[in-house]
Amino acid sequence: MRMKIKTITLSEKILSIFFIISQIYIYPMIGEYQDIYLGFNTKLNFPQENYMVYLITIILITILVQSKSVSLINISNYIKPRCKNLNLYIILKTTLFILKLQFLKILFDMFLSIIFKININIIIISSLSFSLSIIIISILASLINIFINPNISYYIIIVSAIFQPLTKYSIFISSENDFILKIIIITTLIILSIFIKKEYISRGYYQYD
Amino acid sequence: MIKINNVSKQLKNRNILTNVSLDINQNEMVIIQGHNGSGKTMLLRLIAGFIQPSTGTVSNDFSSIGVIIEKPEFLNISGLENLKYLANINNIIKEEDILSCLKDLDLYNDRNLNVRKYSLGMKQKLAIIQSYMENQNLLLLDEPFIALDKSSISTVVSLLNSLKEKGKTIVIATHDNHLVSQLHHTKMIEMENGEIV
User: Fold this and answer.
1) Is the pTM of this model over 0.80?
2) Which of A168, A170, A169, A172 is nearest to A50 (CA)?
């Protein structure tokens, strides 16, 4: 009896796209409340013109994720005999992955703070506080990974990791003259997503039968 | 020791295994034969603990298990990196041990090649390597000779016989009658429609 390699089904795609769209609205909202709570003076407006930036990024990420989603499975049969508690293994691996990601993002934040000449402390504190939301997402992703379909959690982690900084920096790229900056940020985020993807592949996927 | 006691397994109201009983002792090589869909793979999955029986009991005393079930699929990184990834889970062997196993099955020269570029036979050999590289006590191999050329089959047969001589317990599911005579098996069972006949 052979296990069928599972690709992303139409309903899962719809769910993922819904999730992506919801992120566009949810993240700026979280960011704004968080900034008020932390007493920052950085009002997170969401400039209308940036919708096109998001749209392009969504398309690029979707292409990127789709192309390799099939190859992530089937190693599970080799992992299973090596793990006493596979679920715990997945959660730990996902958490480590997220922590690694967070570290990378802080570096990315610092890099941007230099470009935009922003107070580096505000950026780092803001970045760390944002970590809370991504950790919650990682837990959700782990659960989805275990109980539903690993491909969806892959979407969620990638999209969250990409959109969080994207929405965060949208305030800095709202003027008409910073087209090149937008390109730089999007390119950096795409490179980041490739890195995340590589990490996520090497993390080892698991799928229940 | 493995003790399978009167096990049945139903999936979607279909009987996959029916009243299967089997004892496998240490250092045995057991061949499970049968046509496609006879229940061989399901029996291996049951022994591996991947699935639970609907009725009956399965006990398995082996501390480490090497498994090939399903077609050989790997991550899109090199063969060596795949093996290192799996070895890192328990971290009980060194890279030299992996390289030695790659030499055993003539994959050493292709170790840094991305698995995407591997033929099915090469992937199968990689799957075999991961099943014994950590000195696993019990090997559960579902159609291990599939996609292998003549010379590779001969290498794998010799390897399995030598592993048995070293005290390993090996369970092989195959529908290939020709190779059975070359294996130093201690027990052979035939399956049909989910039953041992």
Assistant:
1) no
2) A170
